[in-house]
Every structure is written in C-alpha cells, then in structure tokens.
Design a protein that fits this description.
Elements lengths: L5 E2 L1 H9 L5 E5 L4 H11 L1 H6 L13 H14 L5 H5 L5 H7 L3 H6 L3 H4 L9 H8 L3 H17 L7 E10 L8 E10 L5 E20 L2 E11 L8 H12 L6 E4 L6 H9 L3 E5 L5 H11 L4 E5 L2 E9 L9 E9 L2 E2 L6 E5 L6 H11 L3 H14 L10 H22 L4 H15 L5 E6 L2 E6 H7 L20
Parallel strand pairs: 1-15, 3-7, 7-8
Antiparallel strand pairs: 2-14, 3-5, 4-5, 5-6, 8-13, 9-10, 10-11, 11-12, 11-13, 14-15
Helix pairs in contact: 2-17, 10-16
Length: 477
C-alpha cells in the first residue's frame, strides 16, 4: 500500500525519545566519499595543509581547515562564501572530512568568542585567510597537485590543449582589465551598423592534458582581459616541461590566437608538434587553396569529406623553415566554396592521405576545451562568482576551481581508482564513515538525524572520549 511520507522532525524526535519508531535506515555522503578518498590517496590534502599564510598572530582556526573548506566548497556548489554558513557548516559529514573533531563541530573552534553561534567558525575567517595568503602560495599549491597527478602515472598520453577564455566582471576587481572591441549589429530594419563594446574582466589561460576524452588542467594563468593570451603561452609550456620532463608534450592543439611562426618553431625545437587553424586573411591559406585547385598535393577523400594536404610551405610569417598545412574543401557531403574553405598549419607530416586525416581528426579534440572545460567551469562550477574583488581572492578561486575540476575529471575517468582505493581504506579505518545519517520512520512521518543524535535520543549517548581526537588527512606512514 502506498503511503505519503511527511517529514516532521519534532514529532519523530518526541516519539523516538519514548523508544518508539517503526524503522530506520542509514544514509551517508554517497559517491562523494570516493572522490575525497582519491584526493586523500593522492596526497592533495597534504598540499592544502602546506599553504602558508601571512598571519603572524595566534589564531584559533587552523589554516588547513580553511583551505580544505575552500576546496570542498567548489564541489558542493555553494553560491558564495556566505552560503557556507548555512550550507556546508551545517553538514557534519563535510566538516569531518574537512578535519573537524566532534567537539569543534558542536562547540566551534573558539567557543568563548562565538558564543555558540557561527560554528565551527565565522565565514569572515575564510575571507581573512584569503586576504592574507599570497598569490604565489596558491599558485604553488596548484602546481604541486599537478605534480602529484603526474607522479601518480595518471597522465599517460602526450596530447595537450592550449586555450583561453574571458571572464567578464561588473564593478571594480583588482587585476581585471578593460577591452574595447568593434562589433557589427543587425538592426530590426535589416541595416548593419558597427558599435563599440567595452568589456571588463580577466582571461583564464590553460594548458590541459587530454586524457580519455577529459581535460586535466596542468598549468594555468589569469591575466587582464586586454592582455593577449599568447604572452603567457611559453610560461605554461615550460612549466609543464620542467615539472614532467622533456618530451611530456608531443602534440599541442591551440586556437588561432596562439598562431605565431616564431613560437611554433621554438616549440618544434623542444620536440612539440602543433596544429593551429589559419586565419581567413592569411597568405598561407590562399596558397593552399591554389594548390588544391590545381590538384597539387595529397588528398584524403570520403563521401562526406575532402581534405588536401600541402607540404613544405614557406609563407608562414616568422617561421624559420617550411611547414605543412591541410585544407578542407568538402564538408558534410557538400563542396565548400573557395572563399569559405578553411585550413590548419601543422608541423606534422601530411605526405599520405592517412596522415592528412590524422591531422584533421586530432584537432577536433580542441573543441573539448570550449564545450566541456570552459562552459562547465563557468556554468557548473561558477568560476565567475569570485570570492572577493582583490587579486588574492580571484587567484584563490581560479586555481582552486581548476584544481578541483581536474581532480573530478580524473575521478570520472576511473584513472584515480588506485588512489581512491588507498584513500577509502584509510577513511573507513580512521573515520568509520563520518557523518552518517539515520532516517527514522514513525507511522507516516520521517526525519533525518545525525547518528550521534539518534543514539542520544535512544538513551545511549557516546562516551565523548574521542571528542578531542582529530583525524587528520595525510599519507599513510
């Protein structure tokens, strides 16, 4: 028989204290346990605990707790720092994962000051910590997590994607810039006019590892919106090569904003091949169109696709030597008019039809950055909702979001199973699945209680001997 269940915490509590209840079942943190276990197994919480602040006076709230909370916040989807007080801070399971003891959860880190409110601490303490942590410390933590991932033998491929996205802001943000662009607008009467558009904000530039269709951000920078992303490209590439070793990057896929012959030649000298789309007004693109029209080159043909490969071209400005290119002349079974044909420059060989198609097919993966990485970061991870208006707050949020985004990507790809298994064994051994909830049913009413609260109402409270025992995160000894 179906029966509508009604949540009534007070009624269930009253009956439970009399020893009356009809059924009970356990609930927990679910699949998120495994992700946290993977982070534990990798040693991510060790890195968070090593972030140094510029605070010299004594403080009742541990810095590692604040950094753990800020990292977990990105997973929980809290809209703002203020939302943490009535969100994450009300969930004992998350507070236990963040490192709180039972007493700190019930009384707060500083019972004398908070007077029983704002437990375990006030969110202003999070802001204060952010404002007193240097950008270099946060960037360094991000790089150390990237090294943990690489040393864990998770990243096995050698294809990387270089791209940038702008994050528009409203109001005054330290470090943000201003960019003026001219765009064409079609009016209701069909007339096209040009107008100036002014945008304020930043650019997030990322170098991501392509792994099983997912993107793992291994190096990143944020810059003012008017600064060109190519100005930090060498820094990102060198950072990965220095951390992961020469030969870590074999193929680099980049947007046309990174098209620069001198840099392509420099990257090639480091053993990095590139594929970059050509701009519509480039001489090299016109040369390839002429070669394809005269049937001079290698062609890959399929019923729905035709691509020409052109070797040893010399018309890419500032490239010392000859490069290759491919040109799309048929797409989705339709012949592409000459003025609409598009192509790519590459340092990969295009001397056979199979190699021509390989270049074309390889670059298709670059769309993952825009379609998966940047869209998900902006919409799902809310990277646009900065934790403050100063440079430190923006740096904290950008790097913490990119770090957690990459860890979730590893978790979803199952590449982190080994580390999740290592971590979950320790979580269960040391934490005994903290924060378990009990769903209690009485007649047609139900309520959810903390396990400790459930035992107390039954007249069997815990002894309290472990209230001051802190279960810290870290690698097994």
């Amino acid at each position: 028989m179906w029966q509508l269940m009604v949540e009534d915490r007070q009624r269930v509590r009253r009956l439970l204290k009399r020893g009356r209840y009809d059924d009970a079942s356990l609930t927990g943190w679910g699949r998120l346990d495994d992700l946290v276990a993977m982070m534990l197994g990798l040693g991510v919480f060790d890195v968070l605990g090593e972030i140094k602040t510029e605070i010299t006076k004594s403080c009742y709230i541990p810095r590692w707790f604040i950094n753990n909370v800020l990292a977990l916040k990105t997973l929980m989807g809290e809209e703002s720092l203020n939302a943490i007080q009535d969100g994450m801070f009300k969930d004992e399971a998350i507070l236990r994962i963040a490192g709180c003891t039972a007493r700190e959860i019930s009384d707060g880190f500083d019972p004398y000051r908070n007077k029983g409110k704002n437990k375990p601490c006030n969110v202003d303490s999070l802001r204060y910590s952010i404002e007193h942590t240097s950008c270099e410390e946060v960037e360094g933590a991000f790089r150390r997590v990237s090294k943990l991932i690489q040393h864990g033998k998770i990243l096995r491929g050698k294809v990387y994607i270089l791209d940038a996205t702008k994050v528009v802001v409203y109001g005054d943000y330290e470090g943000a810039g201003q960019k003026r662009t001219i765009e064409e607008v079609t009016l209701k009467n069909g007339r096209t006019v040009k107008r100036e558009v002014v945008e304020k904000g930043i650019k997030v530039v990322t170098l991501s590892h392509l792994y099983k269709g997912r993107l793992i951000v291994v190096a990143a920078r944020w810059i003012p919106i008017e600064q060109h992303e190519i100005t930090v490209s060498d820094e990102l590439i060198d950072e990965v090569l220095d951390s992961f070793g020469k030969g870590a990057i074999q193929l680099l896929l980049a947007d046309r904003g990174f098209l620069d012959g001198e840099r392509m030649h420099k990257w090639k000298s480091k053993g990095i091949d590139t594929i970059i789309p050509l701009k519509s007004n480039m001489v090299m693109l016109e040369d390839m169109k002429s070669l394809a029209q005269s049937k001079d080159g290698v062609v890959f043909k399929r019923t729905d696709l035709e691509i020409w490969g052109c070797e040893e071209l010399e018309t890419l400005d500032s490239y010392k030597g000859k490069v290759n290119g491919i040109l799309v002349t048929k797409f989705r079974k339709k012949r592409v008019p000459r003025d609409q044909q598009w192509g790519f420059v590459t340092t990969l060989p295009v001397n056979t039809p199979a190699r021509v198609f390989k270049v074309y097919d390889s670059y298709d993966d670059r769309s993952l950055v825009e379609n998966k990485e940047y869209r998900e970061l902006k919409q799902g991870w809310k990277i646009k909702n900065f934790w403050g208006r100063n440079k430190k707050a923006i740096t904290f949020q950008v790097y913490f979001h990119l770090m957690m985004y990459s860890l979730v990507g590893i978790y979803k790809s199952k590449a982190g199973d080994t580390f999740a298994d290592r971590g979950i064994r320790r979580l269960r051994r040391e934490h005994l699945r903290p924060g378990l909830r009990v769903i209690v049913y009485v007649d047609r009413y139900y309520a959810v209680f903390e396990f400790r609260e459930f035992l107390e109402m039954l007249g069997k409270p815990p002894s309290g001997k472990l209230d001051d025992v802190r279960f810290t995160f870290g690698r097994p000894p």
